[in-house]
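User: Show me a protein chain along with its predicted structure.
Assistant: Here is one chain, sequence first, then structure tokens.
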Amino acid sequence: MFVQLNFKSGVPVYLQIVSQVKAAAASGALRAGDPLPSVRALAEDLRVNRNTIARAYGELETEGVLELRQGSGCFLKANGASPLRRAVRSERLAGELDAVIVQAHHLQIGDDALRELLDERLTEFRARQRQRDDN
């Protein structure tokens, strides 16, 4: 499995799993309809409590990233509309952007350089998406 945990990071394990599944979906490592390991199997692989995995999967399901099919398992959901309202999604993203802005400030990266970096990253992300869609 693609998940690697850092128990010394201070980030809860379930949030590490959530972010890594999202990253794998965004990068194309996971595609819509791909199965994820069962809660039990992933818990054994990562050597964590099953409740931790269940919490991560529950969070991903709430955010519309995964779908749980009774008796079949857990699958990456197609890029459909998020069940969260636009305001909630924007609020979550704003929190992440605030952290990036603070980090840029500490690294002494100016506003223009930060915008340029964001544009570069967006361009690269879109190129990877197009490449994945072409395959």
